Batch of 4 targets.
Target 1
Amino acid sequence: MDRPSFESDYTKGTHPLILEALQKANLVHSAGYGLDEFSEAAREKIRIACDAPDADVFFLAGGTQSNAVMIDALLKSWQGVVAASSGHINTHEAGAVEFCGHKVLTLPEHFGKIYADELETFIRDFFADENFEHMVMPGAVYISQPTEYGTLYSLDELTAISEVCREAGIPLYMDGARLAYALACPANDVTLPDIAALCDAFYIGGTKCGALFGEAVVIPQHGLVPHLLTQVKQHGALLAKGFIAGIQFDTLFTDDLYLKLGQTAMNAADRIRAALIRKGYELAFGSPTNQIFVVLEKAQADRLSEKAALGFWENLDDGRVIMRIATSWATTDEEVEYLISIL
Amino acid sequence: MDRPSFESDYTKGTHPLILEALQKANLVHSAGYGLDEFSEAAREKIRIACDAPDADVFFLAGGTQSNAVMIDALLKSWQGVVAASSGHINTHEAGAVEFCGHKVLTLPEHFGKIYADELETFIRDFFADENFEHMVMPGAVYISQPTEYGTLYSLDELTAISEVCREAGIPLYMDGARLAYALACPANDVTLPDIAALCDAFYIGGTKCGALFGEAVVIPQHGLVPHLLTQVKQHGALLAKGFIAGIQFDTLFTDDLYLKLGQTAMNAADRIRAALIRKGYELAFGSPTNQIFVVLEKAQADRLSEKAALGFWENLDDGRVIMRIATSWATTDEEVEYLISIL
Amino acid sequence: MDRPSFESDYTKGTHPLILEALQKANLVHSAGYGLDEFSEAAREKIRIACDAPDADVFFLAGGTQSNAVMIDALLKSWQGVVAASSGHINTHEAGAVEFCGHKVLTLPEHFGKIYADELETFIRDFFADENFEHMVMPGAVYISQPTEYGTLYSLDELTAISEVCREAGIPLYMDGARLAYALACPANDVTLPDIAALCDAFYIGGTKCGALFGEAVVIPQHGLVPHLLTQVKQHGALLAKGFIAGIQFDTLFTDDLYLKLGQTAMNAADRIRAALIRKGYELAFGSPTNQIFVVLEKAQADRLSEKAALGFWENLDDGRVIMRIATSWATTDEEVEYLISIL
Amino acid sequence: MDRPSFESDYTKGTHPLILEALQKANLVHSAGYGLDEFSEAAREKIRIACDAPDADVFFLAGGTQSNAVMIDALLKSWQGVVAASSGHINTHEAGAVEFCGHKVLTLPEHFGKIYADELETFIRDFFADENFEHMVMPGAVYISQPTEYGTLYSLDELTAISEVCREAGIPLYMDGARLAYALACPANDVTLPDIAALCDAFYIGGTKCGALFGEAVVIPQHGLVPHLLTQVKQHGALLAKGFIAGIQFDTLFTDDLYLKLGQTAMNAADRIRAALIRKGYELAFGSPTNQIFVVLEKAQADRLSEKAALGFWENLDDGRVIMRIATSWATTDEEVEYLISIL
């Protein structure tokens, strides 16, 4: 087998059903800017999947864009967003949030997660500080599911964070770049309706979950963000051919395709994880989703990388490295078996 | 025939050859962020088509985004961009340039165009003003080809503007959202190599010219804009699956597809234009490209609109309206004949 | 007499009573950030002068700063501010409004003023445009009293503009950089209580009206702008020693000093204006306040400028020039007589 | 004695010599925007004091403003500024740096200081990261002298940081809000010429060091920041009556007043510090400048605060509190003796 890639979950095109839908709709005239019938159908299916009948749903092109647009839309001009220090917006988005004028206020990360009690203490102490008006006020909270480390918030954890936010009157935003892999994970107990009930805004990731591109931003409470189309356009993020995204999400939310895509990745990840453990590899930490972080000797990493593309994650002080193995909606049984065979 | 649409050039999906290419490449592993082989092939073909062997080429998702990212990248933080008062960035981009902190400095528009002599006078007077340091300095010039009114800069006009810019040390940027229709227009004498020689940055539009989405930003002088990838990401504009855009532009620049697409639209537009003139319709102004602006009695407009979707442009003071008829890469002979038959 | 200066109204220090007050308070301990007793006393006197008992009053260091902070505070992130094309924010503030991410939407200027009916039409047409969500929405209206041309809004004109704004739900903001000269002008019929009743925010200029520096921002409706201290600090505009501004405004609003300062300037201006007319000079337009715009032959301008410093305003096409003569709170009788003597 | 204040160093007006100079210059005509003779004289004296004959010197109104303007001016649009996590820009400036679009990249603080080796490692690791183009690049380094904790960089430490910056091609910026107190501190070995030689920009604080308001930004290498006047104006920070700041700095840099002011504060602080130690008080950490941080029982703090105003700094976990005692240019012997008497 040609050197397969486990580097990331966005190295292949799109699920065949999406290509088919694009083909079928290709020469139909559609309205621009997401006002078309495909987008409307997709929105309605997402509302049903989220049990959020009044939700505003908007399709954007990518994850950093969705984060920047929505965080900017949720914050007042003088506020900042709270995130784990490891949060994608704090580390790997080139300062897109700051570009919009907002500070990222960091909390300690626990394998990518923030803790409700630490969030509560942070907010309470902040507003108890007599100088707080000279500081950047927390105006939204950012989390991701799964996190940067592939870990998951449990329903209890998410509920606790949501309660802290609502008590403080601060909206909770969830980055769902890889949400399909969270939803399909056996260890997960947080459903789309849970997310819609507990978060004030979130996005359902398409780019890393089987679409050519695209993320579906969901705002469960209709009208919470005024003039979102204008704000999206101001950010340069409005898709003229919004129907291209609409067709994709319409397909992803037909016959549970989004969940099935996630299951494909999870089955592959679980088989690989089991094989690694069986063969005595050390996992860096317990990430239950489609990303596996394995500790390797440098020579071992080099040898494996010759045969299969892995993602580099981190150098350890003892000379070893952490490599990331990511499965996806497009990972095949052959690829999994091959990878296991070379471990 | 079902009511065909001439409302705009972005109402249908993509050229069948692009769908075919996406299908073919669908399950190939590609590197992210535009570092893949399809993007590299597309870049090389664009360099050849532009006769700009050192050009930096970058694929973005849309036009407003390309304008905002590139204008922000070309300007110093305290500078503004000069544009016709009718320029898209000044009117219909929701303030995306101002969102980046920059003022749009307007010149009079002449059917969408600026004049080199007026630009020269503006720049000379600006820096002759003893208070110019209290004002927003012109730091880039924005034009579009074709313009908002479907008109074209001639090679002489573009050369004159370019000379003014270079004399003043101010980069010239061209918005080519509909560039295919300019290039294929019989009245046009400005080639891609001309544009690359005369402009400091421009984009070759895909979204309105046969792609699912995407624009190819071209910077003829390699390195003129430092760290463009980072700046693109900071704007939330970096495509994780850049190869999806790469595949499309690779296809558009194979076997002159981009020009051929333009010709399809131009043939359709020229036939419609001829029919309109033959039947005594009044054209609002002489736009030679794929957009036709026709002056209609209100009743006439309503009657036609029942049978074919036209674009509303403007109410005239005398009660008549200007309607826009836009053809595209996807306009069929049947649609043209039908439209002519109902005129 | 040494060549006196009529170049502008900010060439001398401060009114002697202000220096005296600073001297007297110099070694008193005061709280920082405007929380001191002098500032509170000044605020209370301003509330009384404006007949606005609930007004929020904030002291800032300069005019461009006040405009930028307040316009940014009044606008939503996606909105722009409407102003006359000649408005200071549109021409001579180096893009400070755009730096905050907002577009300046221009209306025609009529000797520096906007007309209520043109504003009404602009707003109505804007929201009637089916594409308005792709455009920058008007979110505040900027005027100045007196205007850039030294002209005044009458009470009728201001009332009409205010009514248009309130009908549209758009706040009205007045730049009062030279407000003392408006209030003291015989032709003026707009009082501070009128302004407080008709505008949603405005500033009472100190820098050009007898203070060392400083402007008093007034927001008649308490709480209209939330967390203004934080927004001011975010703009780098919070004065640590706010009491220095407080002492000055406390003095300016004791025993009507602010009005008296204006009268000094107005008496001087009226005498000069009368002399100019008597001697047959041509005034460029009828500005009734402390700025006089006189049309001169170039040689005449040079000859006068040798003896007294005048402000250059504009070159006319016929070779003549418009020069500005500005009086101020510090203009002396001797200076006026000398200037008249050399006319 | 009336309850004296040791809460901060900006609670009194200005040094009598400055008031005298303002008085003397009060009715002289001066050019606007810092183009006057007082400002030029002040600039020249500062150049001499810094042994930086080509330096650009600019007067701004406050510290947060100076930091925001200069950091924005030094950074490229996609870069961030490195600072100690305790740095004023990171904690108490309401996100003024982020408002300009830039991220603050934090390093660990050691009693307010960053360490050269940690800075070096941060920069090296940053650019060694294969993903660095997706992250916010360090584009300037911020330090303050004295720091937030009243501590000082030694000449060796400052030299080491400067070398790391120059090796990396990253400008070094120093916040000198309380620089007079550093320069006058017996423990200090860093002179103004050292700072000018080792930093690329810094400001000499006036607001907290005896001026009514104002900071002198110094850029040793002429022209390093282009069009600074325009950038200052764009930030709303240009003083129309720049001469008011110029007069103050002209006075501060005549006959070493700036140093003498510092010595007054240092003498007072050293006497208080000695008394505290003598009387067995616990100092929170060894700050040698005009700020003293003393650990008190809550009841003790309350008792002292009744008699003299102290600054609250921090609650400790054991129930005790840290209070700040700040002396200033205006602290009198009587105040010092009184404070010592009540300890």
Target 2
Amino acid sequence: MDINNYIRELCAAARRAAPSLASASTAKKNAALAAMAEGLTADCASILEANAADLAAAAGNGVPKTMLDRLRLDEGRIRGICDALRELCALADPIGSGERWVRPNGLCINCVCVPMGVVGMIYEARPNVTVDAAALCLKTGNAVVLRGGKEAIATNRALVASMKKSLAAVGIDPDVIALVERTEREGVSAMLTARGLLDVVIPRGGAGLIRTVVENARVPVIETGAGNCHLYVDESADLDMAVKVAINAKASRPSVCNAVETMLVHGAVAEQFLPAFARAAEAYHIELRGCPRTCAVLPEAVPAEESDWATEYNDYILAVRVVDTLDEAIAHINRYNTGHSEAIMTASRAAAARFQAEVDAAAVYVNASTRFTDGGEFGFGAEIGISTQKLHARGPMGLRALTTQKYLIEGDGQVR
Amino acid sequence: MDINNYIRELCAAARRAAPSLASASTAKKNAALAAMAEGLTADCASILEANAADLAAAAGNGVPKTMLDRLRLDEGRIRGICDALRELCALADPIGSGERWVRPNGLCINCVCVPMGVVGMIYEARPNVTVDAAALCLKTGNAVVLRGGKEAIATNRALVASMKKSLAAVGIDPDVIALVERTEREGVSAMLTARGLLDVVIPRGGAGLIRTVVENARVPVIETGAGNCHLYVDESADLDMAVKVAINAKASRPSVCNAVETMLVHGAVAEQFLPAFARAAEAYHIELRGCPRTCAVLPEAVPAEESDWATEYNDYILAVRVVDTLDEAIAHINRYNTGHSEAIMTASRAAAARFQAEVDAAAVYVNASTRFTDGGEFGFGAEIGISTQKLHARGPMGLRALTTQKYLIEGDGQVR
């Protein structure tokens, strides 16, 4: 079958199943989540076997180390995934909540929270996203079409088969979770143009995926996960604190989107700060790519090229640039950033306030690591992704981001 | 100059001016709105002169009557526009409002409401939208690029010149309101691809504009205003009430998006209801386009073609179809509607509940006219348009729809 027709049939089946889930009770949806957690635990051995096959194939194809880290499952990670499912049961169900008011003419207006309908997820080879996305969509009454990275296809098949079994056991149509099993690249475009079949597509991934989405999307999208994040060390910064935060922001988990990719350093502290940072960075084997002034202070730094400022490495690489003013730092960030997370290290309240007001991003930090941009860390309990756009949702997206509203109006013959 | 460059320069100028407006106080923004109301009142004569020139040219070009109605200004309508500006002063300013919480690790998270940045408006020849959109964007701290229908260009020039004068008088950079004065069609595509210059584009218009937007948009958009609305007369309906509401929904102002375009009638009441409706419709010279069963009851009806079910006439024309069940009515609506406003006339609570749950639209009415889908009628006080999409905003959009959020996080060296 043509890939386009394959995708459309998959989406259409999810769409047919969606209304039954949209009207399911909170209790039934929570029962499904609990069953999914039990099922994944019971199926752990076969899931890990599938994952081992994916890992072996990926390693054989020369997939980079950071991607292997995202792809890998083990018993601990599966336990974590199942714990997250159980925590999701405890979160309030937004569906059906709302506000009701009566107009002077007697019309009763009820604005209620309703599911989007069918959500398309396009993401990289991260099996935990397969379960997270399916679970968050289920809790919000949405059917979901999952298109994960091809390197994780065996793992995803095992995970989705297990979840579908659990859905059937509690009486929910298993078609509400659909996995795109044919992973040719054209399937992504087919999803992005499935108007009338997908209500929203959420791409999670790097700059390449986001570009594809912007060029091809004919359905509404929420762009997520492109994180060219910056940390700016101001002249008034506590330099010991700055070293600690910068190392954390870069090296605690370089493969994720809230890791820092470029560090900007005020010229007045560059000669003192950069060597201290470089010493701490040695333990992590961080490759430094510097502007000429950085390279003059740090002979071990590689000269940065223009493209480095725009690159999300997702790796143990950091671009470093010396700037002379706060304005220059803000201008650099607003030129190259992806609207994700930005941080300033400073003791100046005035500099902090200007940085937070003028930097255009979802999350702007003062004296803290960008690594905190995360639904769990913000206290939302669950996250479908981190939106880098301004429309609908910005920053970590919880359950609400997967819903829309509907006005239900009751009258007794009112005319205008 | 190339139209693409012309648009990009216009957007870039608005973008440069935007930060000063984003940080303006509520008092200053309200002073600007009051000055705009005064200015438009003072400039009334020259605005009406420009409008008369537009109307004469449009009539000469054979522009349809309903479009002339939208284009026409008079002293009363200008007074109404100015009253709306003054009412906008009284509305709460959403910018800067938000929520603040502290995480167990001491991080203080502040989620604040901020302007989008620069908003692009693409709309038809409706001069009132020029002022409404400029004012709503101003109140929410956004710069705006206005691209109205070419038939209204002289009127829009006069309106924007007057508003810019008022902005300058209160010390706001007049570049925050930009008018696209070159109205060739290619300017629309140029706006839809102005990535990095426009933060959101809001098209207001019919199916043709929405199609152009879907095909061409590379910037985030909020689709509005396509209203293929339906009224379904159930077998249990109060038929006198149904006649009154149906006439109002079709004929009180056929040129607007919340007017009904297709009426569905249950077979059990068609023979009684349709003649009564047709008699009432005579006074408005409504052309009826019916399915075969409708035509059998109403010999004056023209046979409807398949395309009629998908057409937003915006005129004194109504498509009519007889259906045998509620399911058939819901299926017809979910196939042809544009996600705007749908109504059922019924005395059955069960039918009303199913219709409201299963029809997929922004506003779903029981026993009331679809004409109430409007920011003012809902009690929101102001409206930038009626969203027919599920993302970001759905239904009448008030001030909030023109804003986004930003997380401002403060720490003292927290790492993860």
Target 3
Amino acid sequence: MKITIVGLGLIGGSIAKALAVSKKHEIYALDVNEDVLLDAMSSGVIRNKAAFEDLTDSDVVYLCMYPEGILDFVRANASHFGKNTIVTDVCGIKTQVYSKIKAVSEENGFIYIGAHPMAGKEVNTFAASDAALYFGASYILIKDNAPKEAFEKLESLAKEMQFGRIVYTTPEEHDKMIAFTSQLPHVLACAYVMSPECPKHVGFSAGSYRDVSRVAKINEVLWTDLFLSNRESLVDEIDILIDNITKIRNAVDSADADELKALLAKSREVKEIYG
Amino acid sequence: MKITIVGLGLIGGSIAKALAVSKKHEIYALDVNEDVLLDAMSSGVIRNKAAFEDLTDSDVVYLCMYPEGILDFVRANASHFGKNTIVTDVCGIKTQVYSKIKAVSEENGFIYIGAHPMAGKEVNTFAASDAALYFGASYILIKDNAPKEAFEKLESLAKEMQFGRIVYTTPEEHDKMIAFTSQLPHVLACAYVMSPECPKHVGFSAGSYRDVSRVAKINEVLWTDLFLSNRESLVDEIDILIDNITKIRNAVDSADADELKALLAKSREVKEIYG
């Protein structure tokens, strides 16, 4: 297949590297950083910088920028996408972005499928990208009336990238789940390291500190965008969390051992059953 | 050295296994579970079940039970400890336990040194214990007027167990730090998995879900004891956390991108500087 990747950061770079493994595809790319394009070419990951024609005759175009950037690019290049080109994205929130891109695709007659590869790292560069980033991860696709063959093509490429499962969902369900599984841990990690004790942790910290604080090494531009694109679901989840922390807090504060034990036992059971 | 370990769970079992590697020591142990003692004997980790005499002539006695159990054991066996025996513990909180054991040691003339090996796992059994559990971890010691040679002996054994650093502190400073580095992540993990979305996470979750929820697989008996033994520091840290989560929540809720970006950037800086 001919594949164009727009944005060679961690996500786009990892897609390019994973699809380059088999040497079966012609891969082109765009990036605002010319050095990254040169790196990707010289390391054999991409064939060349993409031109407008490549948007027209690619089988698949992966849009791997920030949410705002994706929408801007689609609007600016709507007329360049070919009628049989599958345009897909990697955007971590869907409700706000999906319907807008879908509208542009219907108006301009190209195929758009909303997608979210569920993988990441605290470092967001092409240098950190990795052919194995998606190994075992979920590839989430927004189910709609796009051609069946287009979904099959993306599924087949996802298998090449070694995703562990394909999940079909709606934009609303996606954003509700992502608020809990991905955005909330980032909120938590950032709030956690704001404690005045944090700078003194060395010598007193082990695995549980390391794990809960890991994603505090956040890209604040990207995540501000992601959080604000999913305000309602995220605020709901934060409020649920504060409520549950407060329950444990009050049991500790009032030295209510039975209540505290019951709360912790319930959490243990959830974790044991649902992993 | 002759060493007695009381309690062969994850922590005591790992001490036994780590010290058994060199085959230089005579290791004895006690456990309420006879099967665990048989396992430890048949696998060559300990020489035999400990008798009262072993408490008297051991160089070091490691007390590796729950906080309440440690105190009960010290009180019940105060007269059995030898004058040159170093009694030490592994208790995850210090203010409440340390001074009580210290009082018993002064009254009965044995050496007591408060300690906390900063390592753990979500599974709390001898089967899960591991000679390498302490590799690179911190071994925290409460500095006081116990003999210098006793501290040196514990330090030398800690090096055999492959601890990465020895940290000296006070009971108060220890408990304040542990509230933040260890107890708070456990509170968080438990509160996090209480969300109604949690049971549906599969397919939508990746590394950040896994990391923040890991320690929700909690031993509720042990941690109820630990939390309630450190109430004041823990409630303080929970309140600071709720306050910081609320700051992020309000920035998201009011769609204040500048404020949100500034808060996340501050967290990123803390994490980058202090790790």
Target 4
Amino acid sequence: MLRIFVVLLLIAASPCLGRDAAARDTVKSGAFSMTLPLGLQGDSAYIPESNPMNEGKVELGKLLYFDTRLSKDNTVSCASCHSPYHGFADPGKVSAGVGSQLGGRNSPTVLNRLFSANQFWDGRAADLEEQAHGPLLNPVEMAMGSHADVVAVVKRIKGYGPHFAVAFGDDKVTMTRIAQAIATYERTVVTGNSAFDRYQAGDTSAMSGSAVRGMKLFHGKANCATCHASFNFTDENYRNIGVGMDKKKPDLGRYEVTKEDEDRGAFKTPTLRNIVQTAPYMHDGSEATLMAVVEFYDKGGIGNPQLSSDIKPLHLSAVDRRDLVEFLRALTGDVFNADPPGSFPQ
Amino acid sequence: MLRIFVVLLLIAASPCLGRDAAARDTVKSGAFSMTLPLGLQGDSAYIPESNPMNEGKVELGKLLYFDTRLSKDNTVSCASCHSPYHGFADPGKVSAGVGSQLGGRNSPTVLNRLFSANQFWDGRAADLEEQAHGPLLNPVEMAMGSHADVVAVVKRIKGYGPHFAVAFGDDKVTMTRIAQAIATYERTVVTGNSAFDRYQAGDTSAMSGSAVRGMKLFHGKANCATCHASFNFTDENYRNIGVGMDKKKPDLGRYEVTKEDEDRGAFKTPTLRNIVQTAPYMHDGSEATLMAVVEFYDKGGIGNPQLSSDIKPLHLSAVDRRDLVEFLRALTGDVFNADPPGSFPQ
């Protein structure tokens, strides 16, 4: 599987000529090695020491990620709310779990989570392994009664045994291993080699003049890069831009985790890579389009600096706003390892 | 509502300067007038004489389009499978209706259906009005028992009465009127003013060099424009490109409607506008990404000319394929009238 993955990466990179190929990074974890698409930085990868990567874990994790049998009524998988066909997010404002029950926040993307430790909008999970435990039990998501139930379901599917053996050395099924495998698969779901990356690597024909102007605004007048920083367009930090803070009972985000006043209404800065694929936007899905998001920032958010501490009006022109959107569109790259499995263990 | 709509269109067009604004078309239907985004051609609009447009119908149709109470278990609306957050299509290979039952084909987009008479992948509905009748009763979609049941549900919601009165002159609820209103709303869901349209209108900074090369391939060597023709990138005709034709029991598409041998495996050419938003692709959702679609065509489809009569290998280079994808991405435009209603009649 990894062989195919690497070959795909090489094919995808070939149009970018020698210079780009030379600039591509590799992520290593034990004997495992993964060549990253153009534009991603291997030294920013976060892989817990307790869960080194290997091909078997990637393959097992992919099967588990897409397997609806891990939900109470066999209708919901990780991919239901983090769909490969929707930038590994969900087109609903919030997601529907078993019995069409709705969650409370917009599904964040799985893309490039390789470059992040803390997970969820409020960062309450220390890593992807911890994150993977949550939705399986959440009564409005996959609604399994307990982790023991999850283990029992996977054990009952005999065909999973050999996959655990390849991944972990023996076929013992545990919740820790299930989460480790899913997290390992998720770390391979990376996106890069966007028009922006190819432009950065020297191909001036990769971005339009409008997108180039937008890039300058992004780093300058529009002040986006303060939070949407570095190669993955996120500082992995928490900010209060005021979304929903004018509601009667606002979602206080990071505050619910830290109980620190400065975290009221703060949510994790999302990556902007492939952002055109993951509408709607904001932690509550309240903005339908990228232009609406740019307009939200332009007018200084909800217009109440007390409730929206981290932004202020930008005074952009209509052309500026259009150029910014075109730059955001130029962050759309190739996603590898995204095709659902052809079949599942029985 | 129309006032807001037109104002939005004007604001959106303003960055495109005078020349673009001058090139924009208008669609008229009785006293109703709708200014189209840049790049769309008003004289190609199809509005049945029996269902002239008016503001009231647009507003009523939008409410009905997004109202899940029109499905058997109150969980599914038109927007569930034709989501404004996913280019008015569905990120599933096929869509899930009530009780998570799966349909047989990938949901086609509602975008720019204004420019089409026949609807569905196989064109079995003569217009949007006829189309709107289908999913309401389809047992794996909205699963209402009969059209009388649909009418009864809408009648029971007293708040709909005044909306019917504004739209149709009196508050009588009929299935014909429900379908007419939904179709009228759908005709306002248009996309244009893409980077491509702005480039065509003289703004050379709107498209990247890569996308411009892709555009030339699109009309030349790659031969896309034969079927994906004209301003809406579709000839509204039916073609057999072989997708799924190597299966044991292939979906025969248009043949099921006409019983003409030449229609075996033929499906309607979809528009390519906003195509980056509507993954996965093909009538069965079998291709996950635009690059996969380009590669499918490049290798001549399923490799069996007998089963795939309308295409042949293209022999594109890797750079060609990348440029084609960048051109397809440049067809992403603004969508108006896409925000779900803030509240529903009670």
